[in-house]
Amino acid sequence: MLGRLKQYVFSGVKSHYKDETNRRIIVVNLFAAVGTSITFLLGIRAFIDAEYSLSTTLFIASIVFAISQRLQVRFSSATARTWSITLLISCLMVLTLLLIITGGKDNTGPLWMYLVPPVTMFFAGFVRGLLALIAFTVTCAIILFGFNDASYVADYTYAFKTRLLYSFLTVSFLSAFYEYSRQKSYDTALYLSEQFERQAKHDHLTNLLNRRGAQQCLDREYARMLRSKRPFSVAIADVDRFKSINDTLGHEQGDEVLRQISVKFNARLRGQDILGRWGGEEFIFIFTDTDEAGAVQALESIKELLSKAPLSVYGKEIHVTSSFGVSEVSAETDISSAIRRADQALYYAKDNGRNRVCAISSINSSPFSSSTSQQV
Ligand SMILES: Nc1nc2c(ncn2[C@@H]2O[C@H](COP(=O)(O)OP(=O)(O)OP(=O)(O)O)[C@@H](O)[C@H]2O)c(=O)[nH]1
Question: For the GGDEF domain, which residue ranges apply (predicted)?
Answer without folding.
Answer: 230-362
